[in-house]
Design a protein that fits this description.
With 232 residues, this protein is α/β, with parallel strands linked by helices. Helices cover 30% and strands 26% of the residues. The radius of gyration is 18 Å and the shape is globular.
Amino acid sequence: MHLKAEQLSLSHGEWTLSADGVFGQGVHLVTGPVGSGKTTLASALAGIFEPASGRITHEGISRLSLSMQFPEYHVTGFLVKDEIRSWHLPVTETLQKTGLTGRQDRKTLTLSRGELKRLHLTCLLGSPWDAVILDEPFAGLDCMEKRRVCTAIEEKTHPITIIFTHEQAVLPAADVIWEIEGNALVCRGRVPEAIPAWKGAPQYLTRALEEGARPENIRLQDATEALCRMHA
């Protein structure tokens, strides 16, 4: 099972992005500065943005979902309970997970963006998919909610998870690191070997590496544990 970009070229006017690589099973983290093309690439991999050239193939993937940055784009239910039922999920249990208990009869679009994002991600990550593509899943969430989303991702309910983000504080454990650099998608490799080559790594990882630590993954707790092992 994999999602493959073959000599892919994406363009908006004079801007172009090239991508060539295979996203196999596991959690893939794709980073890059704002405006580098993460959203465009995520949309192309999901099949809703037409590449200028090259092709995208899905091997063994029959159920794929793209989560866009703005949750309003995904709303289909007039009321919160309608939105949850549209995902074929239990209303009460889902409300508890999102911290929205008692709001089942509230109009969905009257929720704050953060609340709506929590609802959307809980529904999406709680549904069965072969591959999930998440575009800026942490945007609009506080630290507690970011950690909750990370926990859901780390449970690996979905064989392939691809995360596009510029988040630098709260990240899930990952299997493969990718970066957009110089208008091209670059695979840094598998974790933990890829961590030293990750140019856009969070500061906590960079500092740990500078001190000689070797984190086993990319989370803050991994950097902290690696430093503790050094001084034990």
